[in-house]
Amino acid sequence: MSVLSPSRCIALALAAALNTACAQGPSSEKAEKEAAMTENPAESRTLDGYTYTTKPVVAEFGPHRFAFPANYYDDQIGPAIGGGVGLTLMWPGLQAAPPGTRPTRSMADHYRAIGVLIDYVDAVPITGLLERIASTEAITPEGSVTRRDPTRRLDLRIPKPPQFGITPYAVDEKKMATYSQEYLKEFGELPIRNPQSEKDWYVERSSDGKVKTLIRCSQPENGLDGLVVEGELLVPDGARIIADCTHDIVDLNDSISMTIRYPRVLLKDWKAIEDAVRTMMARYRIR
After folding, report:
1. What is the pTM of this model?
2. Region labeled Disordered — which residues (predicted)?
3. Cβ-count burial of 195 within 10 angstroms (0-12 exposed, 13-18 middle, 19+ buried)?
Protein backbone atom coordinates (compact mmCIF):
# COMPACT_ATOMS: atom_id res chain seq x y z
CA MET A 1 0.00 0.00 0.00
CA SER A 2 1.62 3.25 -1.11
CA VAL A 3 1.62 6.51 0.85
CA LEU A 4 1.40 9.79 -0.99
CA SER A 5 4.35 12.11 -0.47
CA PRO A 6 3.64 15.71 0.63
CA SER A 7 4.61 17.05 -2.80
CA ARG A 8 2.36 14.52 -4.52
CA CYS A 9 -0.54 15.43 -2.22
CA ILE A 10 -0.08 19.15 -2.91
CA ALA A 11 0.14 18.60 -6.67
CA LEU A 12 -3.03 16.53 -6.68
CA ALA A 13 -4.82 19.05 -4.52
CA LEU A 14 -3.85 21.94 -6.80
CA ALA A 15 -4.92 20.03 -9.89
CA ALA A 16 -8.27 19.15 -8.32
CA ALA A 17 -8.81 22.74 -7.22
CA LEU A 18 -7.96 24.14 -10.65
CA ASN A 19 -10.25 21.62 -12.30
CA THR A 20 -13.08 22.60 -9.99
CA ALA A 21 -12.54 26.31 -10.50
CA CYS A 22 -12.37 26.07 -14.28
CA ALA A 23 -15.41 23.86 -14.59
CA GLN A 24 -17.61 25.69 -12.12
CA GLY A 25 -20.31 27.88 -13.62
CA PRO A 26 -22.93 30.24 -12.18
CA SER A 27 -25.75 27.81 -12.95
CA SER A 28 -24.33 25.15 -10.60
CA GLU A 29 -23.05 27.41 -7.81
CA LYS A 30 -26.13 26.97 -5.65
CA ALA A 31 -26.16 23.19 -6.15
CA GLU A 32 -22.51 22.92 -5.18
CA LYS A 33 -23.11 24.93 -2.02
CA GLU A 34 -25.99 22.62 -1.14
CA ALA A 35 -23.75 19.62 -1.74
CA ALA A 36 -21.14 21.10 0.57
CA MET A 37 -23.73 21.39 3.33
CA THR A 38 -24.28 17.62 3.36
CA GLU A 39 -20.91 17.07 5.08
CA ASN A 40 -19.35 18.74 8.12
CA PRO A 41 -17.11 21.44 6.59
CA ALA A 42 -15.21 21.77 9.86
CA GLU A 43 -14.04 18.16 9.74
CA SER A 44 -10.41 18.10 8.63
CA ARG A 45 -7.00 16.62 9.39
CA THR A 46 -3.56 17.96 8.56
CA LEU A 47 -0.93 15.38 7.70
CA ASP A 48 2.57 16.05 6.32
CA GLY A 49 1.63 19.65 5.65
CA TYR A 50 -1.57 18.94 3.69
CA THR A 51 -5.02 19.49 5.16
CA TYR A 52 -7.55 16.83 4.20
CA THR A 53 -11.19 17.94 4.37
CA THR A 54 -14.73 16.96 3.50
CA LYS A 55 -15.15 19.88 1.11
CA PRO A 56 -16.74 18.93 -2.25
CA VAL A 57 -14.49 18.38 -5.26
CA VAL A 58 -16.09 18.23 -8.69
CA ALA A 59 -15.84 15.16 -10.93
CA GLU A 60 -17.17 15.15 -14.48
CA PHE A 61 -18.62 12.23 -16.42
CA GLY A 62 -19.48 13.34 -19.93
CA PRO A 63 -22.07 16.12 -19.51
CA HIS A 64 -22.71 15.20 -15.87
CA ARG A 65 -21.05 16.74 -12.82
CA PHE A 66 -20.81 15.42 -9.28
CA ALA A 67 -19.48 17.19 -6.17
CA PHE A 68 -18.20 14.36 -4.00
CA PRO A 69 -16.70 15.30 -0.63
CA ALA A 70 -12.92 15.02 -0.91
CA ASN A 71 -12.71 12.17 1.59
CA TYR A 72 -14.79 9.93 -0.71
CA TYR A 73 -12.01 9.86 -3.31
CA ASP A 74 -9.46 7.03 -3.16
CA ASP A 75 -6.68 9.44 -2.21
CA GLN A 76 -9.09 11.64 -0.20
CA ILE A 77 -8.09 14.58 -2.42
CA GLY A 78 -9.96 14.39 -5.74
CA PRO A 79 -10.09 12.79 -9.20
CA ALA A 80 -6.84 11.43 -10.61
CA ILE A 81 -4.86 13.76 -12.85
CA GLY A 82 -5.74 12.97 -16.46
CA GLY A 83 -9.16 11.57 -15.57
CA GLY A 84 -10.47 8.53 -13.77
CA VAL A 85 -12.62 8.56 -10.65
CA GLY A 86 -12.23 6.02 -7.88
CA LEU A 87 -14.15 6.33 -4.62
CA THR A 88 -13.93 4.37 -1.39
CA LEU A 89 -16.65 3.41 1.07
CA MET A 90 -15.89 1.76 4.39
CA TRP A 91 -17.84 -1.28 5.59
CA PRO A 92 -20.01 -1.62 7.63
CA GLY A 93 -21.28 1.98 7.58
CA LEU A 94 -20.79 2.27 3.81
CA GLN A 95 -19.68 5.89 4.14
CA ALA A 96 -16.38 7.59 3.40
CA ALA A 97 -13.53 7.29 5.87
CA PRO A 98 -12.75 10.41 7.95
CA PRO A 99 -10.53 12.85 6.02
CA GLY A 100 -6.78 12.25 6.19
CA THR A 101 -6.96 8.59 7.18
CA ARG A 102 -6.07 7.13 3.77
CA PRO A 103 -2.26 7.61 3.96
CA THR A 104 -2.08 5.86 7.34
CA ARG A 105 -4.83 3.26 6.85
CA SER A 106 -4.32 0.09 8.88
CA MET A 107 -4.56 -3.36 7.35
CA ALA A 108 -7.80 -3.88 9.28
CA ASP A 109 -9.28 -0.81 7.57
CA HIS A 110 -7.81 -1.85 4.23
CA TYR A 111 -9.77 -5.12 4.44
CA ARG A 112 -13.08 -3.29 4.83
CA ALA A 113 -12.46 -0.65 2.15
CA ILE A 114 -14.88 -0.97 -0.78
CA GLY A 115 -13.61 0.48 -4.06
CA VAL A 116 -15.93 2.09 -6.61
CA LEU A 117 -14.64 2.83 -10.12
CA ILE A 118 -16.90 5.16 -12.12
CA ASP A 119 -16.83 5.59 -15.91
CA TYR A 120 -18.85 7.49 -18.49
CA VAL A 121 -19.83 5.13 -21.31
CA ASP A 122 -20.03 6.77 -24.73
CA ALA A 123 -18.00 4.50 -27.03
CA VAL A 124 -20.77 1.87 -26.97
CA PRO A 125 -24.46 1.99 -25.99
CA ILE A 126 -24.97 1.76 -22.23
CA THR A 127 -28.03 -0.45 -22.83
CA GLY A 128 -26.92 -4.06 -22.84
CA LEU A 129 -23.48 -3.27 -21.39
CA LEU A 130 -23.75 -5.83 -18.60
CA GLU A 131 -24.88 -8.50 -21.07
CA ARG A 132 -21.82 -7.73 -23.19
CA ILE A 133 -19.54 -7.97 -20.16
CA ALA A 134 -21.05 -11.39 -19.44
CA SER A 135 -20.39 -12.61 -22.98
CA THR A 136 -17.45 -13.49 -25.22
CA GLU A 137 -18.74 -11.77 -28.36
CA ALA A 138 -16.71 -8.57 -27.93
CA ILE A 139 -13.43 -10.38 -27.22
CA THR A 140 -13.43 -13.39 -29.58
CA PRO A 141 -13.54 -13.72 -33.40
CA GLU A 142 -16.95 -14.42 -34.89
CA GLY A 143 -17.47 -18.14 -35.44
CA SER A 144 -14.48 -19.16 -33.31
CA VAL A 145 -14.62 -22.10 -30.94
CA THR A 146 -13.46 -19.94 -28.04
CA ARG A 147 -16.57 -17.81 -28.40
CA ARG A 148 -18.58 -20.83 -27.19
CA ASP A 149 -16.71 -21.23 -23.89
CA PRO A 150 -19.46 -21.93 -21.28
CA THR A 151 -17.30 -20.64 -18.41
CA ARG A 152 -17.28 -17.15 -19.92
CA ARG A 153 -20.89 -16.76 -21.10
CA LEU A 154 -23.89 -16.05 -18.93
CA ASP A 155 -26.32 -17.38 -21.55
CA LEU A 156 -24.58 -20.80 -21.37
CA ARG A 157 -24.63 -20.99 -17.57
CA ILE A 158 -27.38 -22.56 -15.44
CA PRO A 159 -29.35 -20.53 -12.84
CA LYS A 160 -29.37 -22.00 -9.35
CA PRO A 161 -31.52 -21.26 -6.28
CA PRO A 162 -31.00 -17.70 -5.01
CA GLN A 163 -28.38 -16.92 -2.37
CA PHE A 164 -28.50 -13.67 -0.40
CA GLY A 165 -31.39 -12.59 -2.66
CA ILE A 166 -29.38 -12.91 -5.88
CA THR A 167 -29.23 -15.77 -8.41
CA PRO A 168 -26.02 -17.80 -8.85
CA TYR A 169 -25.26 -19.01 -12.39
CA ALA A 170 -23.15 -22.19 -12.54
CA VAL A 171 -21.14 -23.62 -15.43
CA ASP A 172 -23.19 -26.14 -17.43
CA GLU A 173 -20.94 -29.21 -17.36
CA LYS A 174 -22.76 -30.84 -20.28
CA LYS A 175 -22.12 -27.79 -22.44
CA MET A 176 -18.55 -27.75 -21.13
CA ALA A 177 -18.01 -31.34 -22.27
CA THR A 178 -19.30 -30.49 -25.76
CA TYR A 179 -17.13 -27.38 -25.89
CA SER A 180 -14.06 -29.38 -24.84
CA GLN A 181 -14.54 -31.81 -27.72
CA GLU A 182 -15.00 -28.96 -30.21
CA TYR A 183 -11.86 -27.31 -28.83
CA LEU A 184 -9.91 -30.59 -29.11
CA LYS A 185 -10.99 -31.01 -32.73
CA GLU A 186 -9.98 -27.44 -33.58
CA PHE A 187 -6.68 -27.18 -31.68
CA GLY A 188 -5.60 -30.77 -31.10
CA GLU A 189 -5.73 -30.50 -27.33
CA LEU A 190 -8.28 -30.06 -24.60
CA PRO A 191 -8.83 -26.56 -23.17
CA ILE A 192 -6.86 -25.86 -20.02
CA ARG A 193 -9.33 -25.66 -17.17
CA ASN A 194 -8.85 -25.06 -13.49
CA PRO A 195 -12.26 -24.95 -11.79
CA GLN A 196 -10.65 -23.38 -8.72
CA SER A 197 -9.75 -20.31 -10.77
CA GLU A 198 -13.20 -19.97 -12.34
CA LYS A 199 -15.41 -17.19 -11.02
CA ASP A 200 -18.75 -17.72 -9.32
CA TRP A 201 -21.33 -15.58 -11.10
CA TYR A 202 -24.38 -13.93 -9.53
CA VAL A 203 -27.06 -12.03 -11.41
CA GLU A 204 -30.05 -9.86 -10.60
CA ARG A 205 -32.44 -9.16 -13.47
CA SER A 206 -34.89 -6.33 -14.01
CA SER A 207 -38.58 -6.95 -14.54
CA ASP A 208 -38.00 -7.20 -18.30
CA GLY A 209 -35.32 -9.87 -17.88
CA LYS A 210 -32.30 -7.62 -18.52
CA VAL A 211 -29.18 -7.97 -16.38
CA LYS A 212 -29.40 -5.34 -13.64
CA THR A 213 -26.54 -6.52 -11.45
CA LEU A 214 -23.57 -8.72 -12.39
CA ILE A 215 -21.26 -10.01 -9.65
CA ARG A 216 -18.28 -12.30 -10.26
CA CYS A 217 -16.40 -13.66 -7.27
CA SER A 218 -13.18 -15.61 -6.97
CA GLN A 219 -13.39 -19.02 -5.36
CA PRO A 220 -12.80 -19.64 -1.66
CA GLU A 221 -9.65 -21.56 -0.78
CA ASN A 222 -10.66 -24.86 0.81
CA GLY A 223 -13.90 -23.25 1.89
CA LEU A 224 -12.19 -20.17 3.34
CA ASP A 225 -12.95 -16.70 1.95
CA GLY A 226 -9.73 -15.25 3.36
CA LEU A 227 -11.61 -13.06 5.83
CA VAL A 228 -14.35 -13.58 8.39
CA VAL A 229 -16.67 -11.06 9.98
CA GLU A 230 -16.06 -10.36 13.65
CA GLY A 231 -18.35 -7.57 14.80
CA GLU A 232 -17.42 -4.55 12.68
CA LEU A 233 -14.07 -5.97 11.62
CA LEU A 234 -12.92 -8.33 8.86
CA VAL A 235 -10.30 -10.71 10.22
CA PRO A 236 -8.01 -13.12 8.27
CA ASP A 237 -9.15 -16.73 8.47
CA GLY A 238 -5.88 -18.43 7.53
CA ALA A 239 -6.36 -18.73 3.77
CA ARG A 240 -3.40 -17.70 1.59
CA ILE A 241 -5.60 -15.58 -0.70
CA ILE A 242 -8.50 -13.26 0.05
CA ALA A 243 -11.37 -14.09 -2.31
CA ASP A 244 -12.95 -10.98 -3.78
CA CYS A 245 -15.93 -9.88 -5.85
CA THR A 246 -16.31 -7.57 -8.83
CA HIS A 247 -19.80 -6.04 -8.85
CA ASP A 248 -20.98 -4.24 -12.00
CA ILE A 249 -24.01 -1.96 -12.29
CA VAL A 250 -25.04 0.86 -14.63
CA ASP A 251 -27.00 4.09 -14.59
CA LEU A 252 -28.87 3.92 -17.89
CA ASN A 253 -30.13 7.52 -17.72
CA ASP A 254 -26.66 9.06 -17.30
CA SER A 255 -24.70 6.43 -19.28
CA ILE A 256 -22.49 5.74 -16.28
CA SER A 257 -21.03 2.38 -15.28
CA MET A 258 -19.94 1.56 -11.75
CA THR A 259 -17.60 -1.29 -10.85
CA ILE A 260 -17.51 -2.10 -7.14
CA ARG A 261 -14.85 -4.32 -5.56
CA TYR A 262 -14.93 -5.88 -2.10
CA PRO A 263 -13.95 -9.07 -0.25
CA ARG A 264 -16.13 -12.08 -0.99
CA VAL A 265 -17.08 -12.36 2.69
CA LEU A 266 -19.18 -9.21 2.11
CA LEU A 267 -21.21 -10.78 -0.72
CA LYS A 268 -24.04 -11.18 1.77
CA ASP A 269 -24.24 -7.37 1.85
CA TRP A 270 -24.24 -6.91 -1.94
CA LYS A 271 -27.64 -5.20 -1.99
CA ALA A 272 -26.77 -2.73 0.78
CA ILE A 273 -23.47 -1.96 -0.95
CA GLU A 274 -25.17 -1.38 -4.31
CA ASP A 275 -27.87 0.80 -2.73
CA ALA A 276 -25.20 2.85 -0.94
CA VAL A 277 -23.35 3.48 -4.22
CA ARG A 278 -26.53 4.51 -6.05
CA THR A 279 -27.56 6.75 -3.15
CA MET A 280 -24.12 8.38 -3.14
CA MET A 281 -24.33 9.06 -6.88
CA ALA A 282 -27.77 10.65 -6.55
CA ARG A 283 -26.83 12.65 -3.45
CA TYR A 284 -23.80 14.36 -4.98
CA ARG A 285 -25.03 14.85 -8.54
CA ILE A 286 -25.14 18.56 -9.38
CA ARG A 287 -25.80 18.37 -13.11
Report:
1. 0.85
2. 27-47
3. exposed
